[in-house]
Amino acid sequence: MADLYTFALTHGEVLRYSGYSVPFTVPAGYFPPQSLNAAAGGTFILGPRFGRTLVTTKIGVQTDTVPIEIFAGANDLIGNLTWQNAFRLGVFDGAKIEVSRLVCLPPAGVGIGALVGAIVWFQGYVGEVQIGRSMITVTANSMLGYLNVQYPRRLWQHDCTHVFGDTMCQFDRNSMAVLVVAQINSTQSQISTGFNPTPATLYDQGTMIGNSGQNTGFKRGIASANTGGIAFLTVPFLYPVAVGDTFTMLPGCDHSIATCQNTFNNLAHHGGFPYIPPPEYAV
Fold first, then answer.
1. How many CB atoms lie within 10 A of CB 229?
2. Contact, 191 vs 213, CB < 8 A?
3. Which of 43, 95, 104, 179 sits a CA distance of 20 to 30 A from 173?
4. Which residues contact 117 (CB under 8 A, 6 or more apart)?
5. Which domains does the chain have, with CATH numbers?
């Protein structure tokens, strides 16, 4: 039996690690339907050592947490980032965590025997993180923890409450997509594109998606893209950016009524309530 650790990042990357002494590939069909690996299986590589507490199973909606200890050294890398830097830079923010147990027949020699199946011990998301020089302690919160968030679907507030480009916003972000090429001085956290948008803030809070190179298919948020043709990212890419790598930039929205009307001509679907007086005007 071997523990499997899966991290599904919000940016598209899925990191899989073996808790056994050898790496191995698990084909699709060995995981239960609710697993993060159910659709395609995956290859679980060797990485840092992992430790965890016992996992309990309870009936009801009581939430549970599992502390996971990651013993990562300087040579344990995610892309070309150390685990410590990846957590500090927000790579794992909001990531899903799955702890599975793989069951195999006794091996005939070195490695593992024939695969029998896998069960999901725990599935949750990254909570509180404590970063040390050689150990990172991650509190994995059960997915039921999202039920503790108390908020209405719609808020009566000045700015729009829709997610930009969703079915309620109805704006097609791809209509303003632009293809850019990484130029000299590009790094994993800032891409030099030479592109200056009009208006200047059009791609602030937008999205950058890799089309070629080592970051193909992965996306990052854009903090700002209006300074000298450089797009500053909210979280760095995991892999180096080479000159000539191509990216797609999608616009962002500050959810104000002025941007909705003047930039996107989407006022009919604005989800804010700009004419509600602020609280300080109340008598």
1. 15
2. no
3. 95
4. 30, 102, 103
5. 2-148 (no CATH), 173-252 (2.40.10)
**Mind listing the pLDDT tens digit for each residue in 112-139?**
778 888 889 899 999 999 998 889 999 9
Cα angle for residues 20, 143, 84 (degrees, 5° grid): 55
Nearest to 9 by CA among 118, 122, 86, 81: 86
DSSP state of 67: E
Residue 198 tokens read as 């009009």
Q: How far is CA 23 from CA 16, 120, 200, 283, in A?
A: 10, 19, 48, 68
**Six token digits for residue 71:** 């013993």
Q: Phi then psi for 280, rounded to 5 degrees?
A: -70, -10
Query: Exposed/middle/buried for 214, CB within 10 Å: 0-12, 13-18, 19+?
Result: middle
pLDDT digits (tens, 9 = 90+) for 37-85: 998 889 999 999 998 887 777 677 777 888 999 999 889 999 999 999 9
pLDDT of residue 111: 67
One-letter amino acid for residue 96 of the chain:
K
Does 152 sit behind a cis peptide bond, omega within 30 degrees of 0 on the bond before it?
Answer: no
